[in-house]
TrEMBL record:
GO terms for molecular function: ceramide kinase activity. One of its GO terms (biological process) is ceramide metabolic process. Residues 148-299 form the DAGKc domain. It comes from the Eukaryota. GO terms for cellular component: membrane. This is Ceramide kinase.
Length: 566
């Protein structure tokens, strides 16, 4: 609960014809009904809930954090009416026959069920013009002093993402809120794939903007980070192709308006896939750092990843689903069932560098939440290590690499939980957004029944890692080599281990139904297919920042007091 601090203003104003004591400090706007009501008891503070403001007529005391005020609107003519969003007309000034009274409306963030935010408003009427002016200008001054709020945004809309509603969602739900908050925008509707990435890399005048907004899904977000990270390295004379290079963080924040098929990056950083909630997080200037993995093949840069790098099952689902793009988000379910029934496994070698000295494990019960202390601690630790770069990196590359060979149904690296509506706890429920690590999940060859048990646990409280054929490691780097890319000496070893078996007849024996199981899958990299299977992955701690705050823990007050949440 925020402490109110020194009061800047304290006046008696009216809300819907009822007298309220209204106060403004640097951190809080509070309005408290003057006449005590039978339900009010001064020693029961539960009626005053600063972080979860209630509607004006639902209680006696309301508070809203100044950081969550969206804007102040000056109401115009006395006795005039204004049309609400829902089409109804509301009166702005009460007819009381008193002297000239002035009204202003404060728009603020109201929390609803399941992490959704809405824009609520309350209209205050002042007894005199001078007081009205003081109130409006004082609130505006407080808002102007919040330097983290974006004023100019560069917006990219993918009109073909998800259900092809990106443009409509932006125009109907987001643009009006930006306008109300006084945020100016330059909107670009993409014309083809990689349009936004290339525009950011070369053309965009980034100095003019405080942030970039992505209207689309995870694939569109991936375009944005590729453009932005690349541009930042080139502007800072850093070679993005070198796998050992420490990358420069971009100064621009990225906002995500979900309009894609999975939208897991939005879901895992805000707690819901809702365009209005995301727009409000952007307006209030929230900040959430996020790890980025760089993916290389033979020292050549391939891509960045922030959510899922998946070989085997998720790679095959993506490859198959691309042919069904016309179906929209349902394509993943259909391809998921198909790939589940196909039940391919792939052989290869995974090497990884376990994360040393950091807090947290993939089996923790605690989750990454707003203001996560694990991310803060590990972020500081890793940036200190980066300062003493040479010694540490050398020991990283020399020792401690571990190697696992086997037959895998899936190899997944989750740099964040990958929570999404299909799986609200995600692929790795305890993964952190900004701790500099990724959770490497190895699902070994098992029966269809066992694999189904593993998949189903993504949707229940049961632990999807608590199975003999699943292992999970928290890592800083990893490499994968598919079996048939292995060096000659590795292959010789394989042949000795397997006797004199023929490599290809081995595959066909294990798949008598088709007789031609593929030796390779593809990597699903945040929803894009990689062109190579042998990859080298490194996590870059907190390389980008989002207009988000991580998932907020629900407070005891949320369901009890917020009428919107009931
Ligand atoms: C039986 C139910 C099993 C449910 C298992 C659900 C696990 C879902 C984990 C999803 C992790 C998603 C990670 C994010 C990936 C995105 O970057 C990426 C791109 O997103 P975009 O389209 O918005 O651009 N999305 C994806 O790659 C989509 C992955 C979706 C996988 C769906 C899998 C469904 C599996 C269904 C199996 C059903 C077996 C039924 C047997 C009778
Ligand atoms: N104008 C466009 N036309 C076609 N494809 C586009 C366009 N703009 C972006 N894309 C591509 O569309 C793909 C999917 O975008 P995304 O917004 O993630 O939707 P979805 O979640 O449905 O996959 C991405 O690979 C992106 O590069
Ligand atoms: Ca992480």
């Amino acid at each position: 609960m925020e402490r109110p601090g020194r009061l800047l203003l304290l006046s008696e104003l009216r809300v819907r014809n009822t007298a309220y004591d209204v106060s403004l400090s640097r951190s809080l706007l509070t309005w408290k009904r003057r006449i005590s009501s039978p339900v009010y008891h001064p020693f029961r503070p539960r009626f005053c809930v600063p972080s979860f403001p209630r509607r004006p007529d639902s209680g006696v005391c309301h508070s809203v954090s100044v950081s969550e005020i969206i804007s102040v609107r000056e109401e115009e003519e006395e006795n005039s009416s204004r049309q609400r969003d829902d089409g109804s007309w509301k009166k702005i000034k009460e007819r009381e026959g008193k002297d000239c009274r002035q009204a202003f409306t404060v728009l603020y963030v109201e929390r609803c069920r399941q992490h959704r935010w809405r824009c609520a408003e309350v209209t205050f009427t002042c007894p005199e013009e001078a007081l009205y002016q003081r109130w409006v200008s004082s609130i505006r001054e407080q808002l102007a002093s919040i330097t983290s709020r974006p004023k100019h945004l560069l917006v990219y809309i993918n009109p073909y993402g998800g259900k092809r509603q990106g443009k409509h969602i932006y125009e109907q739900k987001v643009a009006p809120l930006f306008a109300q908050a006084g945020v100016s925008t330059h909107v670009i509707v993409t014309e083809y794939a990689n349009y936004a990435r290339d525009h950011l890399r070369t053309e965009a005048e980034l100095k003019k903007f405080d942030g970039v907004v992505c209207v689309g899904g995870d694939g569109m977000f991936s375009e944005i980070i590729h453009g932005l990270i690349w541009r930042t390295q080139i502007d800072g004379s850093v070679d993005p192709n070198c796998p050992d290079q420490t990358l420069l963080p971009s100064s621009l924040h990225i906002g995500i308006i979900p309009a894609g098929s999975t939208d897991c990056i939005c879901f895992a950083t805000v707690g819901t896939n809702d365009p209005v909630t995301s727009a409000l997080h952007i307006i209030v200037g929230d900040s959430q750092p996020m790890d980025v993995c760089s993916v290389h093949h033979n020292n050549t840069f391939l891509r960045y990843s922030v959510s899922l790098l998946g070989y085997g099952f998720y790679g095959d689902v993506l490859t198959d689903s691309e042919r069904k793009r016309w179906m929209g988000p349902a394509r993943y379910d259909l391809s998921g069932v198909k790939m589940f029934l196909t039940h391919h496994y792939y052989e290869g070698t995974v090497s990884y560098l376990p994360a040393r000295g950091i807090v947290g494990t993939p089996r923790d019960a605690a989750k990454c939440r707003s203001g996560c202390v694990v991310c803060q601690h590990n972020g500081q630790l890793l940036s200190k290590r980066a300062e003493n770069y040479t010694m540490d990196e050398d020991s990283e590359s020399d020792g401690e690499w571990r190697t696992i060979r086997g037959k895998f149904l899936a190899i997944n690296a989750a740099s964040m939980s990958c929570a999404c509506p299909r799986s609200p706890k995600g692929l790795s429920p305890a993964a952190h957004l900004a701790d500099g690590t990724t959770d490497l999940i190895l699902v070994r060859k098992c029966s269809r029944f066992d694999f189904l048990r593993h998949l189903l646990r993504h949707t229940s409280k049961d632990d999807q890692f608590d199975l003999t054929f699943v292992e999970v490691h928290r890592v800083r780097r990893f490499r994968f080599t598919p079996r048939y890319c292995q060096s000659d000496s590795d292959l010789e070893l394989d042949l000795r281990e397997n006797g004199k078996r023929q490599i290809f007849s081995q595959i066909c024996r294990d798949h008598p139904a088709c007789g031609c199981a593929p030796a390779y899958s593809s990597w699903n990299c945040d929803g894009e297919i990689l062109t190579h299977t042998a990859i080298d992955v490194r996590v870059h701690c907190q390389l980008i920042k989002l207009f988000a705050r991580g998932i907020e823990e629900p407070t005891v007050f949320e369901d009890l007091t917020n009428p919107c949440a009931i």
